Amino acid sequence: MNAQPPAVPKQAAGRPEAGVGWLRARNIAIGLIIPLTILLFWQLASQRGWVSPIFLPLPSTTLFSFFDMVNRQSFHIDFLASISIVTQSFIYGSVLGIGLGIAAGLSQTVERIFGPTLDGIRHIPGIAWLPLIVLWVGIGPAAKIVVITKTVFFPVFLNTLQGIRGVEKNYIELAKVLTLTRWQLVRKVILPSAMPSILVGVRYGASLAWALVVVAEGLSGMEGVGYLIFRAQSLLMTDQLLVCMVVIGVVGFLIDRSMALLQRHLLRWKQGFDG
Predict the structure, then answer these.
(1) Which of 34, 35, 79, 217 could in theory staple to 221 by disulfide, Cβ–Cβ 3.0 to 4.6 A?
(2) Please, are residues 143 and 133 in contact by the beta-carbon 8 Å criterion?
(3) What CA–CA distance (Å, rounded) separates 103 from 160?
(4) Is 60 part of a structural domain of the chain?
C-alpha cells in the first residue's frame, strides 16, 4: 500500500503569495512617504498663505488646470510630440552606441580611429550644439533629435566599451581551451558578460533623453512639453508650469522603472546583492 503525502491546507499554500503581496504593498507605501509629505506641505503653504497663490497655487487648482489643458489646449498633442522625439532619439543613440561600442571593444584599431574624435565631441554639451544644428536643419524635430541622439550615444557607447573590456580574462582563456570560434566567443562569452554594463548605459541614456527634450523644446520649437513650460513661465501661469513639471517627473519615473524591469528581465540569470 502506497503512502499518500499529507494534504496541504489551502490557507498555508496561499501564505507565500500573501506575504509577497504584503511586502509589495509595504514597499509602495514607503515610496509614497516623501511625495505625500511634499504634497502636504504644498497644500499648507498655499492654503495658509505662506507663499503667494501666484507663485504656488493650490494642488486642486493645479489638478483642474491639468484637465483644462487636456480638454481645451490640446496638451496631449504636445505630449505626444515630446514622446516621439525622445523615442526616435533614444533608438538612434542606443543603436549607434551599442554598435560602435562593440566594434571599439573588440578592436583596438577601431578605438584608435574613433576615440580621439569622440572624446573631443563628448566634452561639448548637447545644448551647445543646438544653435548650430538649428542653423543647418531649422527648428523642427530634426534638430532636437540630432542633439538628443548625441546625448544618448555617449553613455551607451562608453558603458558598452567598458563592459566588453571588463570581461574576465579567465572566461577568455576558458573559451580558447574549448576552441570556440570568434563569433561563438563574442556571442556566448563577451556579450553576456558585458550585458550588465550595456544595460546601465541604455537606462541612463533613456533618462537623459527625456530630461534633455524639455530643454531642447524650450530653446527651439513651438510645441512639446518643454515649450509649454517656457511659455507658462513667461506668462506667469504657475499652475500650468506645475502641471508640466509633474508630468515630466511622472513620465521620467515610468521610463526609468520600465528600463529597470527590462534590465531585471534580461539579467534574471545574474544574482546580485539586494541590499
Answers:
(1) 217
(2) yes
(3) 10
(4) no
User: Does residue 119 fall inside a structural domain?
Assistant: yes
Q: Give the three cell numbers for residue 219.
A: 530653446
Distances from the Cα of 6 to the Cαs of 3, 9, 12, in angstroms? 9, 9, 13
How many domains does one find in the chain?
Answer: 1
Backbone φ and ψ for 274, nearest 5 degrees, come out as -90, -10
In a domain, 41, yes or no: no
Question: b/e for 47-82, b at 16 or more Cβ within 10 A?
Answer: eeeeeeeeebbebeebeebbeebeeeeebeebbebb
Per-residue DSSP letters for 13-47? HHHHHHHHHHHHHHHHHHHTHHHHHHHHHHHHHHH
What is the domain range of residue 235? 66-266
CATH code for the domain of 157: 1.10.3720.10
The tens place of each residue's pLDDT in the chain, 275 residues long, gives 455 555 545 444 445 556 667 877 777 888 788 888 888 888 888 888 788 878 888 888 888 999 998 888 889 999 999 999 999 999 999 999 999 999 999 999 999 999 889 888 888 887 788 888 888 887 788 889 999 999 999 999 999 999 999 888 888 888 888 877 888 888 888 898 999 999 999 999 999 999 898 888 887 778 889 899 989 988 888 999 999 999 999 999 999 999 989 888 888 877 665 55
Q: Which residues contact 259 (CB under 8 A, 6 or more apart)?
A: 199, 202, 203, 206, 207
Angle (nearest 5°) at CA 257 between 127 and 255: 35
Q: Environment class of residue 242 by beta-carbon count within 10 Å: exposed (0-12), middle (13-18) or buried (19+)?
A: buried
